[in-house]
Amino acid sequence: MTPAEKDVAEEDLVRARVEALLVSHPPAGTPPERFWAAQFDAGLAWVGSPPGSGGVGVRPGLQVVVDELLGKAGAPLNWDRNPAGLGAGAAALLAAGSDEQRGRWLRPLFTCAEVWCQLFTEPQAGSDLAAVTTTAVPEGDEWVVRGRKVYSTLAHVARWGLLLARTHPELSKHGGLTCFALDMTTPGVTVRPIRAMDGDAEFDEVVLDEARVPDAHRLGPPGGGWQVAVATLASERLALAGPTRDRDGGPIGEALRLWRDREDRDPVLRHRLAALWIDAEVARLTVGRARAGSPAAAAVARILTAEVDQRVWELCVELLGADGALYDSWEPHTPHAAGESRRDPRRAYLRSRALTVQGGTAEITRTLLAERVLGLPSAPRT
């Protein structure tokens, strides 16, 4: 079989599996959790993964075909329920997890039966992630963890946390790290909400006071945490770019709705809306290329979607006119799913300020593009 024939055969296989899934589990009449379980079992969660790990072992770029077909059929999305699990936890498990670990965690992660959070960022380790100071000290067949993590999305509802900790302080800062799957119900794990400027407490601070992690929950070899983190962050950048949207979906769809509701037709606002629609369409196409397997496009898509969405939500507030200065409520709210309370454009505008910071700042992503894609000289590092 030639490479071209293999590509055609793989795509035919994927399309046939999607069709069978939609016939056996119609999205309109199937509970989301049951649909996601059937999708995983059909190998349509991450098609490039081996059978039994949510895939069928075909080229990863065919996942975009799955996502588009399921989107057109109105299939439920699990991203809001478990963003850190799908964007980070799954990548770590697929990159470094053992067969036993993948078999234990991947399916409930994809079905959102077990929500994950990401325990990477610390007060003094954000952009410089390798500077983490949370320690994990071996004691028998366990590791004793001490430290503090911040801005962990949905840690208050998570069952598992993807933890990056320093296990070998004598090594270089990149070489002394190890990744673990931390049971968030473990004694010594304290979760405290962080209320953001949109009024919600979607992020959390997590204090680890002698929390114990079995060595069986270690992902990859001791000291190999940086390699796991790099694979995870690459996946997270693409995940933060969002799913491949419809032409009028996402924030730009909300802007179009607000424009249609206006009585006047201000030409300046109309020009801005048209320009932003074009930018959103470019972002949509870039996300599609990234999901087809282009690492460079993934980094570009992460920056592009974040900055376009910020500008779109800003326009939405302006389209509201005087109502844009109002707020539905300032009562503290703790979401149980990402995006749960962002439907109001005014909340979304405030929340969008984080888009160019979370998961690595836009500046860091531009540096990665400059050095690893364009081949420019590296920035000075200590």
What would you say this structure looks like, in words?
- The structure is a single chain.
- By secondary structure, this protein is of the alpha+beta class.
- It has 3 domains: 3-110, Butyryl-Coa Dehydrogenase, subunit A, domain 1; 116-223, Beta Barrel (Butyryl-CoA Dehydrogenase, subunit A, domain 2); 241-373, Butyryl-CoA Dehydrogenase, subunit A, domain 3.
- Helix content is 43%, strand content 13%.
- It contains 11 helices and 8 strands.
- It has helices at residues 3-24, 32-41, 63-72, 83-96, 99-110, 225-240, 250-261, 267-291, 295-319, 345-351, 362-373; strands spanning 116-119, 135-139, 142-149, 160-166, 177-183, 189-194, 203-214, 218-219.
- It has a 4-stranded mixed sheet.
- Helix 6 crosses helix 9, helix 8 runs antiparallel to helix 9 (295-319) and helix 9 (295-319) packs antiparallel against helix 11.
- It is globular and about 70 Å long.
- The model has no long low-confidence stretch (mean pLDDT 91).
